[in-house]
Protein backbone atom coordinates (compact mmCIF):
# COMPACT_ATOMS: atom_id res chain seq x y z
CA UNK A 1 0.00 0.00 0.00
CA UNK A 2 0.86 3.67 -0.31
CA UNK A 3 3.03 5.31 2.35
CA UNK A 4 1.71 8.59 3.82
CA UNK A 5 1.73 11.24 2.58
CA UNK A 6 1.03 9.78 -0.85
CA UNK A 7 1.71 11.79 -3.99
CA UNK A 8 -2.05 12.11 -4.53
CA UNK A 9 -4.68 11.37 -1.89
CA UNK A 10 -8.40 11.64 -2.60
CA UNK A 11 -10.81 11.16 0.27
CA UNK A 12 -14.51 11.72 0.85
CA UNK A 13 -14.81 13.30 -2.59
CA UNK A 14 -18.38 14.29 -3.51
CA UNK A 15 -19.21 16.00 -6.81
CA UNK A 16 -22.54 16.92 -8.37
CA UNK A 17 -23.79 18.46 -11.61
CA UNK A 18 -26.53 20.75 -10.33
CA UNK A 19 -29.03 18.54 -8.48
CA UNK A 20 -27.51 15.35 -9.79
CA UNK A 21 -24.83 13.94 -7.47
CA UNK A 22 -22.32 11.67 -9.22
CA UNK A 23 -19.52 11.08 -6.67
CA UNK A 24 -20.36 9.83 -3.18
CA UNK A 25 -17.13 9.77 -1.17
CA UNK A 26 -14.44 8.65 -3.63
CA UNK A 27 -11.31 7.40 -1.84
CA UNK A 28 -7.96 6.44 -3.33
CA UNK A 29 -4.26 7.23 -3.21
CA UNK A 30 -1.25 7.03 -5.51
CA UNK A 31 2.36 6.85 -4.35
CA UNK A 32 5.46 8.13 -6.15
CA UNK A 33 6.32 5.94 -9.15
CA UNK A 34 3.10 3.93 -8.88
CA UNK A 35 0.80 3.05 -11.76
CA UNK A 36 -2.79 2.89 -10.53
CA UNK A 37 -6.09 2.43 -12.38
CA UNK A 38 -9.69 3.50 -11.97
CA UNK A 39 -11.93 0.86 -13.54
CA UNK A 40 -15.65 0.50 -13.91
CA UNK A 41 -18.47 0.61 -16.41
CA UNK A 42 -19.54 3.73 -18.30
CA UNK A 43 -21.23 6.44 -16.29
CA UNK A 44 -19.81 5.37 -12.91
CA UNK A 45 -17.94 8.64 -12.28
CA UNK A 46 -14.34 8.04 -13.44
CA UNK A 47 -14.12 11.11 -15.66
CA UNK A 48 -15.92 13.20 -13.06
CA UNK A 49 -13.30 12.09 -10.53
CA UNK A 50 -10.50 13.19 -12.87
CA UNK A 51 -12.28 16.49 -13.62
CA UNK A 52 -12.69 17.10 -9.88
CA UNK A 53 -8.98 16.48 -9.29
CA UNK A 54 -7.99 18.77 -12.16
CA UNK A 55 -10.33 21.59 -11.06
CA UNK A 56 -12.41 21.33 -14.24
CA UNK A 57 -15.51 20.72 -12.10
CA UNK A 58 -15.69 22.00 -8.51
CA UNK A 59 -16.07 19.26 -5.89
CA UNK A 60 -18.91 19.77 -3.41
CA UNK A 61 -16.91 18.33 -0.52
CA UNK A 62 -13.93 16.13 0.25
CA UNK A 63 -10.17 16.34 0.22
CA UNK A 64 -7.76 16.17 -2.73
CA UNK A 65 -4.16 16.33 -1.61
CA UNK A 66 -1.06 16.61 -3.74
CA UNK A 67 1.64 15.66 -1.25
CA UNK A 68 0.66 17.67 1.83
CA UNK A 69 -1.19 20.42 -0.09
CA UNK A 70 -4.99 20.41 -0.37
CA UNK A 71 -5.81 21.34 -3.98
CA UNK A 72 -9.61 20.80 -3.90
CA UNK A 73 -11.36 23.79 -5.46
CA UNK A 74 -8.22 25.48 -6.86
CA UNK A 75 -8.52 26.78 -10.43
CA UNK A 76 -7.44 24.26 -13.06
CA UNK A 77 -4.44 26.26 -14.34
CA UNK A 78 -2.97 26.30 -10.82
CA UNK A 79 -3.54 22.57 -10.39
CA UNK A 80 -1.83 21.86 -13.71
CA UNK A 81 1.10 24.01 -12.63
CA UNK A 82 1.41 22.05 -9.39
CA UNK A 83 2.25 18.96 -11.42
CA UNK A 84 -0.85 17.12 -12.64
CA UNK A 85 -0.78 16.35 -16.37
CA UNK A 86 -4.06 15.24 -17.96
CA UNK A 87 -4.48 13.32 -21.21
CA UNK A 88 -8.22 13.97 -21.51
CA UNK A 89 -10.96 11.69 -22.77
CA UNK A 90 -11.35 12.46 -26.48
CA UNK A 91 -7.73 13.79 -26.73
CA UNK A 92 -8.67 17.48 -27.18
CA UNK A 93 -5.59 18.50 -29.11
CA UNK A 94 -5.61 21.86 -30.91
CA UNK A 95 -6.79 20.99 -34.47
CA UNK A 96 -5.52 24.22 -36.05
CA UNK A 97 -2.02 24.15 -34.55
CA UNK A 98 0.82 22.03 -35.86
CA UNK A 99 2.14 19.07 -33.91
CA UNK A 100 5.14 21.14 -32.86
CA UNK A 101 2.93 24.09 -31.79
CA UNK A 102 0.65 21.78 -29.78
CA UNK A 103 3.68 20.52 -27.87
CA UNK A 104 5.42 23.85 -27.34
CA UNK A 105 2.18 25.44 -26.08
CA UNK A 106 2.26 23.06 -23.11
CA UNK A 107 5.96 23.26 -22.19
CA UNK A 108 6.94 23.70 -18.53
CA UNK A 109 9.70 22.40 -16.30
CA UNK A 110 8.26 23.21 -12.92
CA UNK A 111 10.52 21.12 -10.73
CA UNK A 112 13.60 22.13 -12.72
CA UNK A 113 14.09 18.43 -13.36
CA UNK A 114 17.57 17.25 -14.25
CA UNK A 115 16.24 15.44 -17.35
CA UNK A 116 13.01 17.22 -18.29
CA UNK A 117 10.71 16.41 -21.18
CA UNK A 118 11.61 18.69 -24.07
CA UNK A 119 10.58 18.82 -27.73
CA UNK A 120 13.56 16.64 -28.86
CA UNK A 121 12.87 14.13 -26.12
CA UNK A 122 9.17 13.86 -27.01
CA UNK A 123 10.14 13.40 -30.69
CA UNK A 124 12.61 10.68 -29.69
CA UNK A 125 9.91 8.98 -27.59
CA UNK A 126 7.30 9.27 -30.39
CA UNK A 127 9.19 9.11 -33.73
CA UNK A 128 5.81 9.31 -35.53
CA UNK A 129 5.28 12.80 -34.10
CA UNK A 130 8.74 13.87 -35.29
CA UNK A 131 7.77 12.85 -38.83
CA UNK A 132 4.49 14.76 -38.54
CA UNK A 133 5.74 17.83 -36.67
CA UNK A 134 4.64 20.38 -39.27
CA UNK A 135 1.23 18.75 -39.84
CA UNK A 136 -1.84 20.30 -38.28
CA UNK A 137 -3.52 18.47 -35.41
CA UNK A 138 -6.57 17.71 -37.54
CA UNK A 139 -4.42 15.98 -40.20
CA UNK A 140 -3.31 13.25 -37.79
CA UNK A 141 -4.70 9.73 -37.44
CA UNK A 142 -6.44 8.79 -34.18
CA UNK A 143 -3.30 7.05 -32.92
CA UNK A 144 -1.09 10.02 -33.78
CA UNK A 145 -3.53 12.38 -32.05
CA UNK A 146 -3.35 10.20 -28.96
CA UNK A 147 0.46 10.27 -29.02
CA UNK A 148 0.28 14.05 -29.37
CA UNK A 149 -2.08 14.29 -26.40
CA UNK A 150 0.35 12.22 -24.31
CA UNK A 151 3.36 14.18 -25.58
CA UNK A 152 1.62 17.43 -24.71
CA UNK A 153 0.98 16.23 -21.14
CA UNK A 154 4.62 15.09 -20.83
CA UNK A 155 5.81 18.54 -21.95
CA UNK A 156 4.34 19.90 -18.69
CA UNK A 157 6.73 17.55 -16.82
CA UNK A 158 3.95 16.25 -14.59
CA UNK A 159 4.58 14.59 -11.25
CA UNK A 160 1.46 12.55 -11.98
CA UNK A 161 0.26 11.73 -15.50
CA UNK A 162 -3.49 11.02 -15.77
CA UNK A 163 -4.88 9.23 -18.85
CA UNK A 164 -8.65 9.07 -19.39
CA UNK A 165 -9.59 6.42 -21.98
CA UNK A 166 -6.37 6.83 -23.95
CA UNK A 167 -6.88 3.74 -26.13
CA UNK A 168 -10.57 4.31 -26.88
CA UNK A 169 -11.42 3.99 -30.57
CA UNK A 170 -7.92 2.91 -31.63
CA UNK A 171 -6.99 -0.15 -33.69
CA UNK A 172 -5.43 -3.05 -31.72
CA UNK A 173 -1.88 -2.45 -33.02
CA UNK A 174 -2.01 1.25 -32.15
CA UNK A 175 -3.41 0.39 -28.73
CA UNK A 176 -0.45 -1.86 -28.17
CA UNK A 177 1.87 1.01 -29.05
CA UNK A 178 0.20 3.19 -26.42
CA UNK A 179 0.54 0.43 -23.79
CA UNK A 180 4.22 0.04 -24.68
CA UNK A 181 4.71 3.79 -24.23
CA UNK A 182 3.09 3.68 -20.81
CA UNK A 183 5.29 0.75 -19.79
CA UNK A 184 8.40 2.73 -20.76
CA UNK A 185 7.17 5.74 -18.76
CA UNK A 186 6.59 3.49 -15.76
CA UNK A 187 10.11 2.07 -16.05
CA UNK A 188 11.30 5.67 -16.04
CA UNK A 189 9.61 6.15 -12.64
CA UNK A 190 6.63 8.19 -13.86
CA UNK A 191 3.57 7.99 -11.59
CA UNK A 192 0.45 7.33 -13.70
CA UNK A 193 -3.30 7.16 -13.10
CA UNK A 194 -4.94 5.22 -15.94
CA UNK A 195 -8.61 4.87 -16.85
CA UNK A 196 -9.33 2.33 -19.57
CA UNK A 197 -11.63 -0.55 -20.53
CA UNK A 198 -8.88 -3.05 -21.44
CA UNK A 199 -8.70 -5.04 -18.23
CA UNK A 200 -5.98 -7.42 -19.44
CA UNK A 201 -3.66 -4.62 -20.48
CA UNK A 202 -4.29 -2.76 -17.21
CA UNK A 203 -3.52 -5.86 -15.14
CA UNK A 204 -0.25 -6.28 -17.06
CA UNK A 205 0.76 -2.62 -16.68
CA UNK A 206 -0.46 -1.34 -13.31
CA UNK A 207 0.51 -2.00 -9.70
CA UNK A 208 -2.90 -1.47 -8.12
CA UNK A 209 -6.52 -0.96 -9.14
CA UNK A 210 -9.65 0.73 -7.84
CA UNK A 211 -13.06 -0.35 -9.12
CA UNK A 212 -15.65 2.44 -9.18
CA UNK A 213 -19.40 1.80 -9.03
CA UNK A 214 -21.93 4.65 -8.81
CA UNK A 215 -19.43 7.20 -7.58
CA UNK A 216 -17.70 5.09 -4.93
CA UNK A 217 -14.75 2.72 -4.76
CA UNK A 218 -16.20 -0.76 -4.25
CA UNK A 219 -12.97 -2.75 -4.52
CA UNK A 220 -9.23 -2.08 -4.50
CA UNK A 221 -6.29 -4.39 -4.80
CA UNK A 222 -3.22 -5.56 -6.68
CA UNK A 223 -3.02 -6.83 -10.24
CA UNK A 224 -2.57 -10.38 -8.91
CA UNK A 225 -5.74 -10.10 -6.82
CA UNK A 226 -7.78 -8.71 -9.73
CA UNK A 227 -6.39 -11.24 -12.22
CA UNK A 228 -7.33 -14.09 -9.88
CA UNK A 229 -10.94 -13.00 -9.31
CA UNK A 230 -13.04 -13.67 -12.40
CA UNK A 231 -16.32 -13.20 -10.51
CA UNK A 232 -15.26 -9.69 -9.51
CA UNK A 233 -14.27 -8.81 -13.07
CA UNK A 234 -17.58 -10.13 -14.34
CA UNK A 235 -19.64 -8.31 -11.73
CA UNK A 236 -18.13 -4.84 -12.04
CA UNK A 237 -16.32 -4.77 -15.36
CA UNK A 238 -18.52 -6.97 -17.50
CA UNK A 239 -15.68 -9.20 -18.71
N1 LIG B 1 -21.21 17.76 -17.55
C1 LIG B 1 -22.12 16.93 -17.04
N2 LIG B 1 -23.36 17.37 -16.68
C2 LIG B 1 -24.27 16.54 -16.18
N3 LIG B 1 -24.07 15.23 -15.95
C3 LIG B 1 -22.87 14.72 -16.28
C4 LIG B 1 -21.83 15.55 -16.84
N4 LIG B 1 -20.74 14.76 -17.05
C5 LIG B 1 -21.09 13.54 -16.67
N5 LIG B 1 -22.35 13.49 -16.19
C6 LIG B 1 -23.04 12.32 -15.65
O1 LIG B 1 -22.30 11.86 -14.54
C7 LIG B 1 -22.27 10.44 -14.48
C8 LIG B 1 -20.81 9.96 -14.46
O2 LIG B 1 -20.20 10.29 -15.71
P1 LIG B 1 -18.64 10.12 -15.95
O3 LIG B 1 -17.90 10.72 -14.81
O4 LIG B 1 -18.37 10.68 -17.31
O5 LIG B 1 -18.50 8.54 -15.92
P2 LIG B 1 -17.38 7.57 -16.53
O6 LIG B 1 -16.18 8.38 -16.87
O7 LIG B 1 -17.15 6.56 -15.45
O8 LIG B 1 -18.00 6.94 -17.75
C9 LIG B 1 -23.05 9.96 -15.68
O9 LIG B 1 -24.38 9.68 -15.25
C10 LIG B 1 -23.06 11.15 -16.61
O10 LIG B 1 -24.20 11.16 -17.42
MG1 LIG C 1 -15.21 8.66 -18.74
Characterize this entry briefly.
The protein is α/β, with parallel strands linked by helices. Helices cover 34% and strands 26% of the residues. The chain folds into 2 domains: 8-83 and 159-237, Rossmann fold, CATH 3.40.50.300; 97-157, no CATH class.
What does this structure look like?
By secondary structure, this protein is α/β, with parallel strands linked by helices. The protein has helices at residues 46-54, 76-81, 99-104, 119-125, 127-131, 142-154, 172-187, 199-205, 223-227, 230-237, and strands at residues 8-17, 20-30, 35-39, 61-66, 69-70, 84-87, 160-164, 191-195, 208-213, 216-222. It has two domains: 8-83 and 159-237, Rossmann fold, CATH 3.40.50; 97-157, no CATH class. It is 34% helix and 26% strand. The strands form two sheets. The protein has a six-stranded mixed β-sheet, sandwiched between helices. Strands 2-1-4-5 form a four-stranded antiparallel β-sheet, with helices on one face. The protein is globular and about 45 Å long. Bound molecules: adenosine-5'-diphosphate and magnesium ion (MG). The site of magnesium ion (MG) has 5 residues, from helix 1.
Amino acid sequence: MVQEPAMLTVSGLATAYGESQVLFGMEFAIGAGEVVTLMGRNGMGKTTTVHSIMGIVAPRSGMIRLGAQDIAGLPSHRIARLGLGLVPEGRQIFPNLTVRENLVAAAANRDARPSPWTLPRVFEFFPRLAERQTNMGNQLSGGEQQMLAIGRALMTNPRLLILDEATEGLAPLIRQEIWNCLRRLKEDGQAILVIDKNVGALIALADRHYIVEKGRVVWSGTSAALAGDEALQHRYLGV
